[in-house]
Amino acid sequence: MKNYKSYTLSNFREIPQLKEIDEELKHSIEVVGHVLPFKTNNYVIDELINWNNIPADPMFILTFPQREMLQPHHYVKMEIALTSGDKSIIQEVANTIRLQLNPHPAGQMEHNVPEIDGVKLTGMQHKYRQTVLFFPAKGQTCHAYCTFCFRWPQFVGMNEWKFAMHETELLVSYLRNHPEVTDVLFTGGDPMIMKTKMLAAYIEPLLDKVNLPNLQTIRIGTKALGYWPYRFEFDEDSGDLMRLFERIVESGKNLAIMAHFNHPVELSTPTVKAAIKRIRATGAQIRTQSPLLRNINDSPEIWAEMWRKQVNLNCIPYYMFMARDTGAQHYFAVPLVKAWGIFQAAYQQVSGVCRTVRGPSMSCTPGKVQVLGVSEVPYNGELKKIMTLRFLQGRNPDWVARPFFAEYDESATWLDELKPAYGEKEFFFEKELKEMFNEEIEDTEAGNLE
Length: 450
Ligand SMILES: *Cc1c(COP(=O)(O)O)cnc(C)c1O
Ligand code: SF4
Description:
By secondary structure, the protein is α/β, with parallel strands linked by helices.
């Protein structure tokens, strides 16, 4: 049994294990942590980070800001601001740098926000036909922050885009008006940060069969299994949480915990194993996802191990994502061709039960786009490398599962860096996408993890 203790910029020097660590490293945490969000907790510190492997340890890099996460000139700028000791200067420099880090990739400020009778439901997004994202107001923080997180602006108080919505009633009436929706995905932050009572207040109105026959699956996106598995086993209301899960399952809905695991180490502690077992015993499913991150998990062995461990623990591998074009992306990004290579080499090592996973996938403006691979095809009398891609989710459902082709490009890290193959001017969806934008259907994303 553990009590949650969190560490942020103001008290991280109290972490006992850091006492032994170079002052230089602590200084860089301080500098970068003034720009990118930083929060960790005693479980991550005591159970996940290998303190004999600093600074290379992947869990250390995942939670502690690293010097190279800022461009050198940004780093120096913040370092100078800090020596001034002037809070308003520090704040101003921090915000100037943040604005240069593409804080709202694919314009996620106010797009895909559904409406009822002309009223914008700002705590929801509806981009793909079957699934509505719901951002409960009380679930917009996390047990610890990931240094790669694309939601970083909301943790550093830059958040005009409040996805928060208080009224589950509005969600229910939206679902009633949209019989095509089968899934609601609770996301955040991390909804599992909420007390069970609060979570139940959001979920229970959705369980009424008569009212919402279309709703089949309730998903909860969470990193709590990775960062605070006590949530499911020892927290004072964890028993109530399991009973809530049971009620969802008994109501006839599928309950899918969409768990974020970035490294096999997160699947290795007795606490996480017990938590998974307990969740599975309620009848809930656990599906797993993670971005592919340089310096954290950019090898096929790590992914193969992760998928195997997940299946052994009764979880279903679901998505491998590309790191999004925001924040410290330069630090984490893996080129698409290399990412596909890692995916393929990992996929080849595991049996079919692990191959429920799909990836590598980019969450971008037109949809979720998977890199299917590189092939050599005859073109104008010679062999030419091309890349094949397809939509796993599309802003237009008709785009899904149609292979399309791009010029081979070893350095591209994102869809907008790719050119259509065979001298085409545009990808097949681009004209229609532009028309959609002209109609002011705007864009947003569930991001790295959804
Ligand atoms: C990823 C995502 C979903 C869920 O997609 P699935 O493929 O069904 O898991 C829903 N909405 C948005 C905006 C997303 O990015
Ligand atoms: S990636 Fe998920 S768990 Fe990590 S900080 Fe972002 S929202 Fe929180």
